[in-house]
Amino acid sequence: MNSWDTIISGAGIIGVSLALELRNRGQQVLVLDRGEPGREASSAAAGMLAAADPETPPALRPMAIASAEMFPQYVQNLESAAQMQVDFRRLGTIALLEEAAASREYKRLSANDLQLLEPALRVQGLTAFFVEEDSVDPLLLMQAALAAARNLGIEIRGHAAVKDIRARGGNLEVLSEAGQFTARSVVNCQGAWSGAPVRPRKGQMFYVQPQTGLLQHVLRTPDIYIVPRSTGKILIGATVEDVGFDKSVDTSTIQYLHKAAATYLPELATAAHTQSWAGLRPGTPDDLPIIGPTETHGVFIASGHFRNGILLAPITAQIVADLLEDRRSQLNISAFSPARFSPRTA
Ligand SMILES: Cc1cc2nc3c(=O)[nH]c(=O)nc-3n(C[C@H](O)[C@H](O)[C@H](O)COP(=O)(O)OP(=O)(O)OC[C@H]3O[C@@H](n4cnc5c(N)ncnc54)[C@H](O)[C@@H]3O)c2cc1C
Questions:
Q1: Alpha-carbon span 284 to 341, nearest angstrom
Q2: What pLDDT, in 10s, does the model give residues 225-263?
Q3: Which of 33, 140, 166, 333 is the most buried (most CB within 10 A)?
Q4: For atom 26 of ligand 1, which residue has the closest CA?
Q5: Which residues of 196-227 are buried (b: 16+ CB within 10 A; e: fewer)?
Q6: What are the C-alpha distances in Å from 237 to residues 130, 154, 166?
Q7: Are both 221 and 315 inside the same structural domain?
Q8: Is residue 76, in this structure, part of any structural domain at all?
């Protein structure tokens, strides 16, 4: 078959979550990816679902909170369609902050409370807050999304970079490395490769495997974050670097992050690295996503999710599916309009 309701360019968590939502609404969907599906930012993330992080831009808050609320059902749907678990953890986050930097949703912890929650933690003169927030293993989440999509009849093709999209006879022709396809709608979900003004923002991080169950909660500090998995592995991250499409890992940067983590959890100092990597977040000039129609009729974009693409995947899928069906979104999405970057608007 060469004709589809919707073609999605990019098989990251944004593209595949959208494909699942559209399939659920009865559409025939094709997802094309430049490389191996799911192998870019979405598998490189930490997996914090940090809706109330004070660093989240205010305009993104309602969308972030709505998506965090959707997450338990989203995970349940993926796990059941894919027949696998994604290590969705609901224990909460401990944020170490200068007191004034805390968000309204943060609950201050006494020294006793903290001792009970995380006995190994050293606060380094900062104030500890509890945040009701979940986490997920993004690598497993991405694998589950791909498996769920395939099980539900969505076609996903790797090594099929989209080269061009042309309007023809009321439809769209998509020219890709794997051939030519036709669709009513096309959605650019190409992450850091979506084109200007989206740009790559590199993050390096790594896993350690400590001897003991050292940490139960996600830990966020002013300089690093630490995310435990149920297997006992602990993730330490991350840098935010503007170095183009470079995904190399720098040993001295990893050592710096490791040393910083050990100031909060001294036992981490001797924990062995098991894996390190870098991923490219899709950044935008105002740190807000770009979601909506482009100047070509029928072509949409859902990109620029920067540090929150895992968190924002379920709500983005719903918003874009509504737009494709010409339905108004329940959220005000005007701040994310692609038109804000068009030369005419400027
Ligand atoms: C170090 C790090 C830590 C992070 N931590 C978190 C976190 O804790 N919580 C959170 O919510 N988010 C986090 N993120 C952000 C999150 O990973 C991203 O926002 C999200 O993965 C973006 O998803 P995506 O599908 O848009 O992009 P991607 O996963 O990068 O997918 C885009 C896909 O498009 C494909 N593509 C590119 N060009 C083409 C083309 N021409 N044709 C076809 N396909 C193409 C690519 O091959 C790729 O597979 C983190 C990111 C990094 C790097």
A1: 10
A2: 999 999 999 999 999 999 999 999 999 999 999 999 999
A3: 33
A4: 191
A5: eebbbbbbbbbbbebeeebbebbbbbeebbbb
A6: 20, 34, 41
A7: no
A8: yes
